């Protein structure tokens, strides 16, 4: 479904991605793990068209989307819940969800809203509350719900557990599992919480200073000594 081949992305003279290759098949959950500054968020932003690849290609369902505008990429069927949630704090929960529906069929709005409220009942309870007054966990639910309003085929999630309490992290990862299993949605997940991410994922990639250094099934990476030392036993990559 998604094919990233030889992608080099720069911030000025700094090369953040150095020839990255990533494949995501339809129906998979694929996770990308790595330390802060490894280039994980840059890869998602490159896929979304927010940051442009200087070299290499990004293809989605066989179509080259390298260099396309972000709104065009969303219409192709990719949505992202970005790092830091980035909800609209002055808008209500419902208004935030409406913003996510701008590129989808208006006739599907009520159905998509019900999907978001079923997945995250707390959003229904808070639908008239301003986004900025929600807890961190509720804001993350809102960010994911907003992304789902565009009915994507591929959902990109950037650090969905960041800064959340363990119980809320468990709820978020269960929601991701449901999105994949019940909605048959493909997911590319960027996470520092390698244990949760690899347990959930079909496959994973390890990104170190802009380069893929390891790949394998979630189980294989969980058992890999290098991954254990760097990400699962309190070590630092």
TrEMBL record:
Q: SUPFAM superfamilies, alphabetically?
A: P-loop containing nucleoside triphosphate hydrolases
Entry keyword Amino-acid biosynthesis: no
Q: Where does the sequence pass through the membrane?
A: none
Stored SMART domains: AAA
Domain ABC transporter per the UniProt entry, residue ranges: 2-234
User: Is Electron transport included in the keywords of this UniProt record?
Assistant: no
Q: Which domain of life is it from?
A: Bacteria
MF terms (GO), sorted A to Z: ATP binding; ATP hydrolysis activity; branched-chain amino acid transmembrane transporter activity
One record GO biological process: L-amino acid transport
Print the keywords alphabetically.
Amino-acid transport, ATP-binding, Nucleotide-binding, Transport
A Pfam family the protein falls into: ABC_tran
**InterPro entries xrefs:** AAA+_ATPase, ABC_branched_ATPase_LivF/BraG, ABC_transporter-like_ATP-bd, ABC_transporter-like_CS, BCAA_Transport_ATP-bd_LivF, P-loop_NTPase
Residue ranges annotated as coiled coil are none
Query: Family, per the entry?
Result: Belongs to the ABC transporter superfamily.
Q: What is this protein called?
A: Branched-chain amino acid transport system ATP-binding protein
